[in-house]
Design brief:
Largest sheet: 5 strands, parallel
CATH topology of the largest domain: Alpha/beta knot
Oligomer: single chain
Order of helices and strands: EHHEEEHEHEEHEEHHH
InterPro entries: Alpha/beta_knot_MTases, tRNA_m1G_MeTrfase_C_sf, tRNA_m1G_MeTrfase_TrmD, tRNA_m1G_MTases_N, tRNA_MeTrfase_TRMD/TRM10
Catalytic activity: guanosine(37) in tRNA + S-adenosyl-L-methionine = N(1)-methylguanosine(37) in tRNA + S-adenosyl-L-homocysteine + H(+)
Number of helices: 8
Low-confidence stretches: 1-6
CATH architecture of the largest domain: 3-Layer(aba) Sandwich
CATH class of the largest domain: Alpha Beta
Mean pLDDT: 92
Structural class: alpha/beta
Radius of gyration: 26 Å
Number of domains: 2
CATH superfamily of the largest domain: SPOUT methyltransferase, trefoil knot domain
Strand content: 15-25%
Helix content: 25-40%
Protein name: tRNA (guanine-N(1)-)-methyltransferase
Family: Belongs to the RNA methyltransferase TrmD family.
Function: Specifically methylates guanosine-37 in various tRNAs.
Amino acid sequence: MSEPLATSPLTFSFLTLFPELLAPFAAEAIVGKAQARGLVQVQLVNLRDFAANKHLKVDDTPYGGGAGMVIRADVAGRALESLPPADEVILFSPAGQRFTQAVAEELAQKTHLVFLCGRYEGFDARVETLVTRELSIGDFVMMGGEAAAACVLEAVARLRPGVLGDPESHQMDSFSSGLLDYPEYTRPPEWRGQPVPEVLRGGHHAAVAAWRREQALTRTLARRPDLLTAAPLTPQDSAVLLGLGVTPEQLTAWGAPPPPVPKRQRRPKRPVQPD
C-alpha cells in the first residue's frame, strides 16, 4: 500500500548569520525536489536583519571577560518573533540531546521547526528560555550550526510522506530498523574479482530477505554492537547471533528472545511384521 502524501508541507526555518551556506544545500537533490513539489519549505532567516543598528552588529563582548563574541539575546528574540508559531524552537548546542534517527522520526511529524544556528561563542544564555529543545549531532566542535542544520534538514525531510521515490525505502535504513543496513550491490555482476552474492541473483525473495537480515546482524555485531541492546530482535535473529559467536548470556543481557526450539523429527513407524 502506498504511503499517503502529506496534507501540508513541513516548514524548516533556520536563523543564521550565513544563509548562503544553507541556500544551495536546500535547493538541490532530494530536498530541492521536495520543495519544488510543495512537500517541504525551507526558510532562511538572516539574523543581521534584526540587528537594529546601522552596522548590522548582532554580537557583543561577554560579560565577565573572556575570548570571543556572543550573539545578543534581543537579536535572536526579534528574529523568532518575526516567524509564525512553531512546533519546536531548536538550538544547536554541545549540551543538547543527541540527534538520532528516533529524534528525526519525531520531528518529521511536525509542521514547523525553527533552528537557531550559532556562531562565535554562541548565543546569550538567555536565548535558552526561548527554545523548546537543544540538539547536538556529536561530541565535536564546529565553527557554527549551519552544518548541523544541513544534517538535520536532510535526515528529517526524507521521512516526510512523498519525499522519497520509494515510500518504504527509509524503513530498512541503518538505525530505522535498529540495526546497521545490509550491503547493497548492483552491476557489474563481478568487479575486480569480487562477485555479487549469488543469493541476490537467484530471484528467491524469502532467501534474499533472510540473507539481508543476517548481513545486517553481522555488520551490527562487528561494527556497532551497542545497537543490539535496543534492537527489536526476533528468535531467528538470536539463532543467527549464536551462530556468529554471541553467547546465551549476551543475548539475555540484550533482552533478546530465545532462539527457536528445533522441531524433533519423528521416527518412522516400523512396518508391522506378519506373524
